[in-house]
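This section describes the prediction task in plain terms. A model, or a person checking by hand, is given the sequence of a single protein chain and must write out its three-dimensional structure as a string of tokens. No templates, partner chains or ligands are provided. The sample shown here is typical of the held-out split.
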Amino acid sequence: MTTDRRALAAVATQFFVNGFVYATIIPRYPEIRDRVEISTGGLGFVLTMGSIAGLLGSVLAGGVVARVGTRRSVVLAQSLTILGVGAIGLATHPVVLVGGLMAVLFFDVFADVAMNMQGSVLSGRRHTPVMNRLHGLWSLATVSGGLLATAVVAFGVSVPVHFIVVALALLVVQVLVWPNLLPVDEPHDEPGDHRAEADSRSSGGRGGAVVLALAGAAAMAMESGVGDWAAIRLTDDLTTSPEFAAAGFVAFTAGMTIGRLSGDWFQVRLGVHRLLLDASIMALTGLAVAVLVGNQWLVLPGLLVGGLGISVQFPQLYDAAARFPGRPGQGFTAMLLGQRLAAVLTPLIIGTLAQTSALGVGEAMAVVVLPAAALTIGLSLLHAAGR
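The expected answer:
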């Protein structure tokens, strides 16, 4: 039990580090865009290139992590992701920015799979699940990183100084926590003499993989479509200050954090089916306000409610992927392919539409995130019906 507690603390720290990386970069996108002298459409292209790297990583990550082991995978991938943050901070040319972002999003997939596999194992050993809370720590890190970004912007700290200091601090954390991660992964249970049973599950397994892919795509479209663009919506559509725009990102991530830290409690009391359905309806409601209402003081609570609704989607998906029947990593491959394909298309669609004279940033976001939220409601209803 002592070993499990230490391992859980180490895994939780990895979730926090991963979220802090995300929150360091995104609130400063408007300044990074101006620093490398690209347009909003150019930023959408840059984000798309980074997401393509993440898509490639999603094809490889499940199998590679299963072979290399989760402990080595999470430490190495997390460290390389952190180094990518430093590269982005130093970028003064679009090529350097693309390279740094591609490194961050490629290696992030491997860290993502490895730490969620360890988290799912530890969660399965406990009376009360912890996956929502682990993802809650990720969201808490995004709030913390967003608040730090807001503060450093207010104090005039440059992007290079901010990113380099954060990268060095997070690398030190990696050195401190890696010995406490689970050293050996549990063997995958696939007995050779159960071929008939495996054959009978193959059709359902394929259907489950499709559902994981669709759900992963919808969750990513909402999370990245709002998280990546909330600050730009506020500055470009509603002409707010950079500090207020960063506060919009904080509102969204605060909703994610509250939902995830309380998600395990609601899961025990409501059940997974009801939790996912109610959360999906809440996501659609909040996001509609966030992307369509033209008042900055109403956009903030819309972002908060939208974050609450989205919060439990990925914890449930990662846990389902970790427990998916079949060869190791198969569930992650399906879910991550959907997730990362959406990550490629979302900034491309939003950036392209926002560049036109017909749509603002919020309306461009609505084209992506509102159908995604509606899809999660449909998938939640199918899940509740046992289909």
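For orientation: Residues 195-227 form the longest helix (33 residues).
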